């Protein structure tokens, strides 16, 4: 399958998933969101599970490339992670967080989903741990355990996601708490700027 | 409806929900788990939404009464909260966390569920904030913002729940991180004991 078809199918999967939810997601509904026929989708992906696995894989890749700015200051990179993770402009305006929540609830029954969520978790924790390590080394941050800070930020982001869905709460509420915790751990206030 | 019937129906709801999940939960399946007929369940609860609303309400009440030990030392009370929230003996062994996750994913479409999750959140944050306030006042904890510490513990508990379901991770992993964060915020190490 060429990259363009794959990308069109996965974007249509995103739209269909947001609109109909996991339980009501069908290949026909994905086809309805794209110019690809349901027969062609079936040809490329044997099962709904495989298709959603590719969808999650694609999400992780995009998240990873969004956050890979190795060259810049660790403080800027940490700010970028917090921006990416905690700043949904309009929570609840689209069904995306709900759809991801439903897929998480399916993880105990679908090993492929669980593996993708473990991948995503590994990527996110790895990115944060690298930043903390670099920042400590460069003298920007106080001595801190990179893995532990990564776990804090990642688990708070998992919590913010659940709160957006279950409570309709904006992730900015969680970001504030994470920023204060980072200040205690790293001796550095996020968003305080690199030039201070 | 007498308290005994109500309690039997709600316990059966718990079992049926854990076994079949939200989407496949039917009044007949709840009846199958109890000595109450499905007609009697329908008589007491007009809709599945109402029944699950009562189920969540009951959960909150039990959680609240479990944590209401106003008399004792704030440090003991904080330990009790961490015990209640982060120590699942066998994550994934029953379907309860998955069922709650599914109900959270339904919250955007069911105002009653959202209201119950908001209640639960309010109770949990209130309990933690009260403990922090009491502990600071008694000189056991460093000066700290009770609401912020409560938000930290509660959001980490939301994250631990999502991680248990999506990743199969034991909440003890999150507890460790919360304990270290509490040490930084309160100058007190959880589980360090009251007599130190």
From TrEMBL, chains A, B:
<dbReference type="GO" id="GO:0003700">
    <property type="term" value="F:DNA-binding transcription factor activity"/>
</dbReference>
<dbReference type="InterPro" id="IPR023772">
    <property type="entry name" value="DNA-bd_HTH_TetR-type_CS"/>
</dbReference>
<dbReference type="InterPro" id="IPR036271">
    <property type="entry name" value="Tet_transcr_reg_TetR-rel_C_sf"/>
</dbReference>
<keyword id="KW-0805">Transcription regulation</keyword>
<feature type="DNA-binding region" description="H-T-H motif">
    <location>
        <begin position="26"/>
        <end position="45"/>
    </location>
</feature>
<dbReference type="Pfam" id="PF00440">
    <property type="entry name" value="TetR_N"/>
</dbReference>
<keyword id="KW-0238">DNA-binding</keyword>
<feature type="domain" description="HTH tetR-type">
    <location>
        <begin position="3"/>
        <end position="63"/>
    </location>
</feature>
<dbReference type="GO" id="GO:0000976">
    <property type="term" value="F:transcription cis-regulatory region binding"/>
</dbReference>
<protein>
    <submittedName>
        <fullName>TetR/AcrR family transcriptional regulator</fullName>
    </submittedName>
</protein>
<dbReference type="Pfam" id="PF13977">
    <property type="entry name" value="TetR_C_6"/>
</dbReference>
<keyword id="KW-0804">Transcription</keyword>
<dbReference type="InterPro" id="IPR001647">
    <property type="entry name" value="HTH_TetR"/>
</dbReference>
<dbReference type="InterPro" id="IPR050109">
    <property type="entry name" value="HTH-type_TetR-like_transc_reg"/>
</dbReference>
<keyword id="KW-0678">Repressor</keyword>
<dbReference type="InterPro" id="IPR009057">
    <property type="entry name" value="Homeodomain-like_sf"/>
</dbReference>
<dbReference type="InterPro" id="IPR039538">
    <property type="entry name" value="BetI_C"/>
</dbReference>
């Amino acid at each position: 399958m060429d990259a363009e078809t794959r990308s069109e199918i996965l974007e249509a999967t995103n739209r269909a998933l947001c609109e109909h939810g996991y339980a009501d997601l069908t290949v026909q509904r994905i086809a309805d969101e794209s110019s690809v026929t349901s027969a062609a989708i079936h040809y490329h992906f044997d099962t709904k599970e495989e298709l959603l696995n590719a969808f999650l894989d694609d999400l992780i890749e995009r998240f990873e490339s969004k956050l890979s700015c190795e060259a810049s200051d660790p403080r800027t990179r940490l700010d970028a992670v917090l921006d990416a993770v905690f700043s949904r402009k309009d929570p609840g305006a689209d069904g995306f967080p709900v759809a991801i929540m439903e897929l998480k609830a399916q993880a105990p029954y679908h090993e492929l989903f669980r593996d993708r969520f473990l991948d995503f978790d590994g990527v996110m924790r790895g990115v944060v741990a690298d930043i903390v390590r670099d920042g400590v080394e460069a003298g920007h941050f106080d001595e801190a355990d990179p893995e532990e800070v990564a776990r804090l930020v990642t688990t708070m982001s998992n919590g913010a996601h659940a709160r957006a869905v279950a409570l309709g709460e904006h992730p900015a509420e969680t970001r504030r708490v994470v920023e204060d915790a980072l200040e205690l751990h790293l001796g550095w206030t996020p968003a305080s700027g690199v030039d201070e």
